[in-house]
Design goal:
With 185 residues, this protein is an alpha+beta fold. It has helices spanning 2-20, 54-61, 118-126, 160-168; strands spanning 29-37, 41-49, 66-76, 84-98, 103-108, 111-115, 127-135, 145-153, 179-183. It has four helices and nine strands; from the N terminus they run H-E-E-H-E-E-E-E-H-E-E-H-E.
């Protein structure tokens, strides 16, 4: 009898790890990011791996606008004090779907672009090409800088009922981790 109880106990313990495993949110992968010198600026070029889950696709089809935020930080480490923040950039993208024209619209600031499919939207959101982030004369030549970039879905911009769902459901937490690298001008 004790062997049977022990066997059942061991079987129950073997089922526990999947139950206790942390729930992982959908993520946006960062494939690459770099700062490249341009005329008078350093520009950011980055490649993300954006893929919408069915919940976000359905929300778009039903008229919910999705807001994505690209965040960039550039700092210089200092041994004697807090790190110096040299540059910071935040770009907000608004994605909407028009059922009448069956087109997606991706806007940032005053600029907008019409797209035919969700695959095109994902490709466009995945690429950051030559976005100016800091002037060349703001950086010290030969000094080491720490750069970081990420892309995320901004759940605070969703309508209030969806914000409540976003807190309780991992389907609404699409984001990348901070991608960090060192940079020497």
């Amino acid at each position: 009898m004790s062997r049977l109880v022990f066997g059942l106990f061991c079987a129950a313990l073997s089922l526990l790890p999947p139950l206790l495993a942390p729930v992982r949110a959908d993520t946006i992968g960062v494939q690459s990011a770099e700062l490249v010198p341009d005329d008078d600026d350093y520009v950011l070029t980055a490649q993300f791996d954006v893929a919408f889950n069915p919940t976000l696709e359905e929300a778009l089809q039903n008229g919910v606008s999705l807001y994505f935020v690209l965040e960039f930080e550039l700092g210089r480490p200092r041994w004697y004090w807090l790190d110096e923040k040299v540059a910071q950039l935040t770009v907000q993208y608004r994605l909407t779907y028009s059922p009448l024209t069956r087109q997606y619209r991706l806007t940032t600031g005053l600029l907008g672009q019409q797209l035919e499919s969700l695959d095109e939207v994902q490709r466009l959101l995945s690429r950051v090409v030559a976005r100016p982030v800091v002037r060349k004369d703001a950086l010290v030549k030969g000094a080491r800088y720490d750069a970081a970039v990420r892309l995320r879905l901004d759940a605070s911009q969703l309508p209030k009922p969806f914000q409540i769902n976003a807190l309780a459901s991992r389907d609404w937490s699409l984001q990348s981790e901070w991608y960090r690298w060192s940079f020497v001008p």
